[in-house]
Specification:
binds iron/sulfur cluster; 3-stranded antiparallel β-sheet; 22% strand; single chain
Length: 167
Amino acid sequence: MEQYGLLIDYEYCTGCQSCEVACKEEHGYPVGKWGIKVLDEGPWEIEPGRMNWNKIPVPTDLCDLCAERAAKGREPSCVHHCLADVMKFGPVEKLVKELSGKPKQVLFVPQYKPYEARGEFRSIRKNDDSRRKVAAIEVESYGQVEFATHRDDSDVRRVDELDSDAE
Ligand code: SF4
Ligand code: SF4
């Protein structure tokens, strides 16, 4: 079976983190879990007046290369939402050829580890409203409502209130 990967030209990566957000939205990963993480290399001074500061997006063990989207012929969510258009998805054999054509690129071939890497994500809501599912999972994983309000500010409630909902 052909192996697929992500080729990232980090010379032009702006560090905008859209790939992180797009991945979390696509998969519903809770706070603290990422399918891709933008890492900092720097900043430090190479020579007076010249700084080194690279932003390097690194897929994690939660990256499944957007298997569901890919099966429908769509590109991965991170690639689709990359504002600087520096990410490519494709067969490793093809990406390797592009890798040799330019420095400051990285090629990732993620290995998805569903059980080991994910642990258990359990929604604490009985009524499974998909729009609120991620927020509910986040409340459980942190035990603090403040972290669960990025989708719906009107839904700020304490964990014990959410617990009583689930009963
Ligand atoms: S390919 Fe899909 S799962 Fe992997 S980092 Fe990108 S958005 Fe996340
Ligand atoms: S979306 Fe693109 S430009 Fe933004 S951090 Fe990710 S790889 Fe870099």
